Amino acid sequence: MTVDPTHPDLKSKNKDSSIIDATKFHFLGGADEVGNVGCLIEDDTTTRVLVDYGLAPTKPPRYPSPSPPVDNVILTHAHIDHIGMTPWLTGSYDSNLHGTKLTADVSEIMWSDTYKISDIEGYPLGWDRRDMEMALDSWIPHEFREWFEIGNWNCRLHRAGHIPGAAMIEILTPHKRILWTGDIDTRNSPNVQGAKPVKCDILCMEGTYGGRNHKPRREEEERFVKRILQVVSRGGIALVPAFASGRGQDVLRILHKNTPHLEVHYDGMGTRVTRHWMKNPQFIHEPKELESAFRWSRRVSGKSDRKKALNGDVIVTTSGMLDGGPAIWYLNRLRHNQANAILLTGYQAEGSGGRKLIEERHIEIFGKRIHIPLEYDKYDLSNHADHNSLIKFASECEPSDIILFHADPEASREISKSIPREIRVHCTTNNSPIIIPHDRE
Ligand SMILES: [Zn+2]
Fold it and tell me: Fold identical between 19-212+383-437 and 217-378?
């Protein structure tokens, strides 16, 4: 990745006439799309912050635009579409990384995995292991609700729901109070309590689920448990592909609570992420329950464990989109017995293995396109706020302006239509800044 020296943001900060008496939001990625988020926020005080810098793990991955030099980056949570490109920043600019301690702890696993995958798949990444080491040394962790200074601004983090350690960012500038939601969920999930609104002038809100509402979470969990029991009672194994950071742990807690008699094997990167969660119990909802669910599950740590898992009842493992990882190894063995089933628990991106399973009933296994005759089903165990929750949250923050991001154009339109008229809504696109004047009431 190279930086264009003629990029407007590389000029002297004071001379940028567009930000005199205004706050400017420049999306480098993740504006009218889900994933690869990065947004520069700056105002006439010469303070500049980059919020998130991730890559979308599609095939090939989608990257944000190169960031101009930036001293301070605030990272909302340890999902790859929010932090995946951060080592490039520390390698290029030696930036400080602000976030919660749990986000910092989990980032190492996420970056190592991203590096490994791009190496195997042959995708350019723009950063290497040395940059990653620098990134790990650049973390400045903050507690929730504790103010810290960046330039002329005061900032603090609030719980965002979504996954443990995920933060919303409150920024107090001399002119405006800004709230950046990151990915949020206002509902309680098995492992984290929901986000609460924060009063602000400018609300930057994610809109992944604009125009769509979730089924009640409890009903969806019951449907999931019922199907697991059905598969096991006919002598099959339920394969549950689940993301390493969030969904896998939610699934474990649901199963531990509802089906304690089953033999549940837990494999993949999620087991390492969970150990970090347990070391940071202040971020977990009922941390003792997580600990018991984790100890109850049979953690897979080698080949012989994997073979044992093939005699169990349920296998919870990465990758959540059937794009690699142990899930593919298991699927290759489980596909021969039609008593087995696949229970998808998350979004399946275009081009992913999970999407191919749904649309073509075929999956690429070790380079070969293989027919998968197994039964599959999808469960909405999302950790994002849905349409109605986003509208309620936005109204309760009482902003004068809302900037929508992390949403496709259709989702943004739906949200805009539902927001009370007195609030100005800005739908964003990458690389065309939103400028909010300070003197406007
Ligand atoms: Zn996320």
Answer: no
Q: How far is it, in rounded angstroms, from Cα 135 to Cα 40?
A: 19
Alpha helices, DSSP H, located in 14-95:
80-83, 86-93
Compute, in angstroms, the gap from residue 248 CA to the centroid of ligand 1: 14
Q: What mean pLDDT, rounded, does the chain reach?
A: 94
- CA 242 to ligand 1 centroid distance, Å: 14
C-alpha of residue 332 to centroid of ligand 1, in Å: 29
CA of 67 to the centre of ligand 1 (A): 21
* C-alpha of residue 80 to centroid of ligand 1, in Å: 8
CATH of domain 19-212+383-437: 3.60.15.10
Q: What is the pLDDT of residue 121?
A: 86
> What is the per-residue pLDDT across 356-390, written as a single tens digit (0 to 9) for each?
999 999 999 988 999 999 999 999 999 999 999 99
77 alpha carbon – ligand 1 mean position (Å): 7
Hunting for tokens 């399973």 — which residue is that?
357
CATH code of 217-378, in short, is 3.40.50.10890
Stretch 129-145: mean pLDDT: 98
| CA 233 to centroid of ligand 1, rounded, Å | 35
Task: Please name the amino acid found at residue 219.
Answer: E
* Ligand 1 centroid, distance to 74 Cα (angstroms): 15
Break the chain into its structural domains and give their ranges: 19-212+383-437, 217-378
Quick: pLDDT tens for 295-315.
Answer: 999 999 999 999 999 999 999
Q: What is the mean pLDDT of the segment spanning 203-213?
A: 97
DSSP string, 157-204: EEE-SSSTT-EEEEEE-SS-EEEE--S---S--SS-PPP-----SEEE
Q: What is the pLDDT of residue 5?
A: 36
**Ligand 1 centroid – CA 411 distance (Å):** 17
Between the CA of 223 and the centroid of ligand 1 the distance, in Å, is: 24
